[in-house]
Design goal:
It is a single chain. By secondary structure, the chain is mainly beta. The chain has a domain of 87 residues: Distorted Sandwich (Coagulation Factor XIII, Chain A, domain 1). It has two helices and 20 strands. Strands 1, 2, 3, 6, 7, 14, 15, 17, 18 and 19 form a ten-stranded mixed sheet that branches. Strands 5-4-8-9 form a four-stranded antiparallel sheet, with no helix packed on it. A hairpin with a 2-residue loop joins β18 and β19.
């Protein structure tokens, strides 16, 4: 009898164990997600002067978009809203696709505090973004002119405190050629091909540099990107 019982248990198939469900991420935890339910952005605009220095245009500006589904960049087809959104205790305005704050008379300083009162899609949360704006000190090596129909090569130098860069040519007439770089290097090599410069119009050419510091965080099990950005523009001559 003991032999029979031993054989029964030794030959019985082991039942598969039920996996233990993983706990949702803690609110505020860092995330490596590349698509988001919201991008909450701080940015400041600069222009390159004739002396090859940066001149600030206005103050640091808050801007936010929310999405019904996680996306890499905000798309009108998936726009979501929240009950209300505050930045540094100032209520932001919704214009039908994004939230903004008219800070003509407000100079925001750190800490940068986002406070969201959510709904069934976007959770409520409060988050203080500790990241400063990225820095850029390479104005002097940017081109002063470009030849349409010719390859354009230059370096972005003096970059720090960033996650990615969007460098672009814009002719002010709808012509727009972007290049994206995901990097943390202090120098990036940029190249626009002959075919890319051929399609641009002469007259109002600008080299633009959008420098972004990502800070992705979980709230309510969903990812949100709190970015700090600077946008730099330099007018250039066309030949």
């Amino acid at each position: 009898m003991y032999i029979a019982i031993f054989l029964f248990f030794s030959c019985k198939k082991e039942e598969p164990s039920t996996p233990t469900p993983s706990s949702p991420p803690v609110d505020g935890a860092a995330s490596n997600a590349t698509s988001y339910y919201g991008i909450l952005q701080l940015y400041k605009i600069f222009e390159v002067t004739d002396a090859d220095t940066l001149a600030g245009v206005g103050y640091i500006t808050p801007h936010a978009n929310f999405s019904q589904t996680p996306v890499g960049y905000m798309q009108n087809a998936y726009v979501a809203t929240v009950d209300s959104l505050f930045f540094n205790n100032v209520k932001m305005t919704y214009d039908g696709s994004y939230y903004y704050e008219d800070n003509t008379y407000t100079q925001y300083t750190s800490p940068y505090i986002w406070q969201t009162y959510g709904n069934s899609i976007i959770p409520s949360f409060t988050y203080t973004n500790p990241n400063p704006l990225p820095t850029y000190t390479g104005c002097a090596v940017l081109p002063d002119s470009i030849k349409l129909g010719k390859q354009l090569n230059f370096n972005l130098t003096g970059l720090s405190g960033y996650s990615k860069v969007l460098c672009f040519l814009s002719d002010g007439m709808g012509g727009f050629v972007p290049k994206e770089f995901v990097s943390t290097n202090s120098t990036i090599s940029v190249s626009f091909s002959e075919s890319e410069t051929t399609g641009l119009a002469s007259g109002n050419m600008v080299i633009g540099i959008w420098i972004i510091k990502d800070n992705v965080r979980y709230f309510g099990g969903k990812s949100f990107n709190f970015t700090t950005d600077i946008l730099i523009s330099k007018p250039v001559y066309t030949q």
